[in-house]
Amino acid sequence: MITFPNAKINLGLNITAKRPDGYHNLETVFYPVPIEDALEIHVLNNSTDKKFALHQAGMEITGNAEDNLVVKAYLLLDKEFNLPPVDIHLYKHIPSGAGLGGGSSDAAFMLKLLNERFELKLTDEKLEEYAATLGADCAFFIKNTPTYAEGIGNIFSPLSLSLKGYQILLVKPDIFVSTREAFSLVRPHEPEYSLKEIITHPVSEWKEQMVNDFEASVFPQYPVIGEIKEELYKNGAMYAAMSGSGSSVFGLFAPDITIPDINFGERSFVFKGKL
């Protein structure tokens, strides 16, 4: 069986408080975008005691197979349901370290794939519980619909928001932004207006109202990321922002505009499509 885990963007992100446990409370809006990995599983006919085999292609993924979130998702359900051994094929197209949730999406889609393949009869709510143990934003990808998130990004409220027809141009420069460092440099504050309110306004008003708090600390360190945002606005974006803690930046364009070809450098990942 095969599935296609998709990416997400953050429509705004406010860091609202530092928690006693060292984490931060925040509010953000997750929105799915059609940049996809490919994930396939087969039952492994194996004479050894091996529970899984992981085959990776596409963009390079560093680290041991056991640390990959798709493997962790499999082992999580295997512990509960004693699943058959599986052959896992993962093709990476969503760039890592981009604020796009690629690894989290892979994990959540793995849970859904295993649930379907082995008829585990797990509800979305139960799958969300499992996903939440793998990462704060993993659970978003279970229902994979526009979502308002608060807490540490793990408390969800569904939204009726639709950007259907809008065009997106997303750029991920060849820059790695440390999420830990990005959090260490932000100044928590209560926003004047909640993102829940702002997203009810027309997209044309978001530029003046919606922010990603990480930009204030990331842009001075990596000016090229801020320059990409400026370039998107210069070329007609209605709203542009960094996604999550970076380093990808996206621009939303009206459905009827022709997005010009922009040179962001040979080593940049660029995606252009419709939402």
UniProtKB/TrEMBL annotation:
It comes from the Bacteria. The gene is ispE. This is 4-diphosphocytidyl-2-C-methyl-D-erythritol kinase. Keywords: ATP-binding, Isoprene biosynthesis, Kinase, Nucleotide-binding, Transferase. Belongs to the GHMP kinase family. IspE subfamily. It catalyses: 4-CDP-2-C-methyl-D-erythritol + ATP = 4-CDP-2-C-methyl-D-erythritol 2-phosphate + ADP + H(+). The active site is at residues 8, 137. The lineage of its organism: Bacteria, Pseudomonadati, Bacteroidota, Bacteroidia, Bacteroidales. Its EC number is 2.7.1.148. One of its GO terms (biological process) is isopentenyl diphosphate biosynthetic process, methylerythritol 4-phosphate pathway. Residues 68-142 form the GHMP kinase N-terminal domain. Catalyzes the phosphorylation of the position 2 hydroxy group of 4-diphosphocytidyl-2C-methyl-D-erythritol.
